[in-house]
């Protein structure tokens, strides 16, 4: 892999991580402003919006990037420019159509959520909020194809910077807008949340300005490439989009998986909870905790581990294409082990410290703590699904992503209502775990069948990682219980102190064990020794 591509991959990974990091921590002031009812309204709008945006743009940057890279490699630069010009028009039309569909469907979507006759006025509130977020669909598809064009030229900086700027602008508008409506204009909660979700459109404008600036800056460079075009390939617009569609479907499926699982909860959770005797307000409160508050925290370890693991996938693709079985086995071993090494302790640590974490981010809440404790370990499945789906793309078996996702969704649909009736909120979590678990098993089987890969080393090293995690968990639990004698996890600053001390102790023990057994060296290579040398640490 070239140094330019390595640098680009690092920049893109860093930009994505910063964007997700910002998207996590804004929930602290946002929750303080709008509370559980506001976050439930916010979630009702954002889940269908995420599905629409995933379908409209989910695979576009990656598929356009892959297409342009392919034809640039054979010096057919005009093909990529043709795609870009027609793509801007197509994405503009797609964005407007998506906006109109979601805007028109808002009352129906609100009706699937608000079924209690006593809360019919609340249905209008949900409709208003969904319509407010739908405007973002006009602009986001345009951004996706511009990002894909830059990435196809191995220029990842525009995508990374625009993602960060988009997120910053969105978050500032969310918080300032909600505060202004509630505290300066004495407006309603519905108006405040509507302004907050409309921030997706404003953030999109900020990201688009960055992308247009980069286009102005780089256009002379890209125009110069056209002068060297070989002009030996004559490909129609129809053939271009047929190829793009084949590239994009697997990416869309990976991106849409989690929103679809959440949407199933949105359709069934409140109804089922009311059916077993809960008041609608209490059901909505539990739904907000499940699909907004807890979900935001669970994504932390997923983002970090998946970002590290997915940087290894291009090497998997290269080894498979070159039929380098030894190299492929090595890359798959490293990918799975890095994923386990980073995700397992993080998720179990989050589950152990669920009460102080929930207090710091939101407020002391018994149900919030209970849901987060049960939900946190599911992050392992989220990360494993994302990585196995990406590997299937790398070994040219992406069509099986369709099968695994459909099986997972079918299991979630079939079991969600009976499990909620049996276990309430934890039932929805278990249905998600079973759905993702089935999808992952299918992906792992396909990986083995198509790549002739064996999981022996991963299993052996995985057992070692499990042992280290158990040791870390036990020690951290003892420290947590000791701290609980002096500090309260229900007080924000005391909860934060508990998190810092427990995380430091747990991480210290875990990484010490990894360094002592040289497991970290096997996973991350010689860079570990260089970092330790710079820090003057001896193990």
From TrEMBL:
InterPro entries: PG_synth_SpoVB, Poly_Biosynth_Transport, Polysacc_synth. It is a multi-pass membrane protein. One of its GO terms (cellular component) is plasma membrane. It is found in: Cell membrane. The chain crosses the membrane at residues 12-34, 46-68, 88-106, 126-146, 167-185, 191-216, 244-264, 297-317, 338-354, 374-395, 402-422, 428-450, 462-483, 495-513. Keywords: Cell membrane, Membrane, Transmembrane, Transmembrane helix. PANTHER family: LIPID II FLIPPASE MURJ, PST FAMILY PREDICTED COLANIC ACID TRANSPORTER. This is Polysaccharide biosynthesis protein. It comes from Robertmurraya kyonggiensis. The lineage of its organism: Bacteria, Bacillati, Bacillota, Bacilli, Bacillales.
